[in-house]
Amino acid sequence: QGAGGSGGxxxxxxxAGLLSALGPSPTSSIHVYTQREVYGTxxxxxxxxxxxxxxxxxxxxxxxxxxFQAEGSRDSTSIFHYAKGQxxxxxxxxxxxxxxxxxxxxxxxxxxxxxxxxxxxxxxxxCDVKNPP
Length: 133
Description:
Number of helices: 0
Protein name: MYP0 protein
Domain Ig-like: 26-133
Radius of gyration: 16 Å
Strand order of the largest sheet: 4-1-12-7-8-9
Family: Belongs to the myelin P0 protein family.
CATH superfamily: Immunoglobulins
Number of domains: 1
Main location: membrane
Strand content: over 45%
Helix content: under 10%
Largest sheet: 6 strands, mixed
Structural class: mainly beta
CATH topology: Immunoglobulin-like
Mean pLDDT: 83
Signal peptide: 1-29
């Protein structure tokens, strides 16, 4: 419960992209790009953008995983997976009913939307992309 005020509360969602170096050559890699900070208003929705570039073709085995680390916590929780051509919202935590997959790996996009933002959504979200040869 925050101190009452006129207007909705603002949330700061921090994003991080993980660089995955895969394959036989050290130059085979994926570069993952996210916004550094995303702000949202309690009750609204926000798109967490995750785009990537790969030096290799986009494999059918590409996987995308989103993790969430609550503000002040040391633990990170997996909240979303894309694997074998299908999106999977993890059945744990407060995001399972509020998350929407809007990405398209063939367009190098791993973005998600979180609906009905709450103060407890403050924290760091990490997008991890793997494109195994």
